[in-house]
Amino acid sequence: MLGPYTRTPHQLAEDYDLQQKIDLEIKMREGTTKLLAACKHPVQSLEASKSLLTSNERMNAYIAELQQRKASEKNGNFKNCCANVEASKARVSVSEIRIPLIWKDTDHFKNKGDYRRFAVFCLLKIGTEIYDTALMNYVDRSMTDVSFDDIVVFHHVPSDFKLKLEVYSKVIQDDLSIASTPRKIKKKISSSVSRTFGRKLAASLKDEFSEKLAVNPDCINEERISNYLRVSEKSDHHSPKEWPVYWASLKNFKLYLWKKRLADMMETKMQTPDIIIPINKNTTVKAIKPSVFNITSNDNKTYSLFVLNEHDLQLWTDHIKQHIEDYVSWKSAAENVMEIPSPTPSRTNMILRQRVPGSLYDETPLNGSTLKGSLKH
């Protein structure tokens, strides 16, 4: 029997994985620091500085998470990681990030006034997962918004997640001559940025942005439980052992039932199920006998299901109840399937494109009203 402070194998594996990530970031930071010292080109220095900042942010997040786990263990508040049923997590993608720049009329339309140029990038954070966007160079008064083509995908995200978007900037030209730029960029980018917006760029940024956020719960595509069940769709006075046998599979907020399990599971998936029981916030499940449980769907139709092994009854009812809770927790993401695009394969320097028609700048109200966009689920 485990004592109050005994680490379970699952917890030990998680801690080991986190420590491995910390060790990796330490090596990455050491290598990037050496690279930064050897950089001679301004763009190389900016890229190295961005990588160093990102690595530091990741390592800080890992260390904070490790400390929180140890504190929870000491206080006896750690979660039971050995539970038979866990809440479904999800993949979350962020793409099409566009941030409008608000300049004075004389700056943008008359090409006078503010002549500074900036390098800009973003950090996106959910828990300990931290990703950076490509570095956008030469942002100046001729640009009305900054757009990032990056597609960032987070994995194993809980339903109560909070997504943080942080924008960083570095002045790469603050006078009319670019000759002095390389010398000035040699300073670490982290010394001239804040957690939200670079100080010198803050006046040009509006608290308005747009992004495409997609959420796809894992339980939509991943089977939660499957086995043979005997099923009755109506009040049946026959013995449950005489009910027809179905192959049952729980996923995508439905309980799929086939009269037979084919040898090829891919063929089974292609074959239309004989019965589909919807699982949503109106579904109820209740054990009525040692081996029988009922599912009542939102149309008040009740199905009786008989487990072939009495020990599986609790497992089935727990999984279905958790599936109902997942539906409630993920809300619209459970009702409407969202497509998760493939993440950006690599980080490459991107040259700012000319503003295309329909720019976010044109859509931004200038009368003090704001565009509502939330990064919190």
Report on the architecture of this protein.
One of its GO terms (cellular component) is actomyosin contractile ring. This is Rhotekin-like protein. The protein has 3 domains: 1-79; 87-219 and 346-377, Immunoglobulin-like (Sandwich), CATH 2.60.40; 223-335, Pleckstrin-homology domain (PH domain)/Phosphotyrosine-binding domain (PTB) (PH-domain like, Roll), CATH 2.30.29. The strands form 3 sheets. Strands 12-11-10-9-15-14-13 form a 7-stranded antiparallel beta sheet. Strands 2, 3, 4, 7 and 16 form a 5-stranded mixed beta sheet that branches. Strands 1, 5, 6 and 8 form a 4-stranded antiparallel beta sheet that branches. The chain has helices spanning 9-38, 42-75, 105-108, 181-185, 199-202, 218-221, 265-270, 313-330, 332-335, 360-363, and strands at residues 90-100, 117-126, 129-132, 136-139, 145-148, 152-157, 164-173, 210-217, 225-232, 245-251, 254-258, 275-278, 284-289, 292-296, 302-307, 350-351. The chain has 10 helices and 16 strands.
Short overview:
With 377 residues, this protein is of the alpha+beta class. It contains 10 helices and 16 strands.
From the N-terminal CA to the C-terminal CA, the straight-line distance is 39 Å
Poorly predicted runs are 176-206, 347-377
* Strands ordered across the widest β-sheet: 12-11-10-9-15-14-13
The fraction of residues in strands falls at 25-35%
Summed over residues and divided by their number, the pLDDT gives a mean of 78
Can you count the helices? Answer: 10
- Quaternary structure: single chain
Radius of gyration using CA atoms only: 27 Å
The percent range for helix content is 25-40%
CATH class of the largest domain: Mainly Beta
Instruction: Tell me which CATH architecture of the largest domain applies here.
Output: Sandwich
CATH topology of the largest domain: Immunoglobulin-like
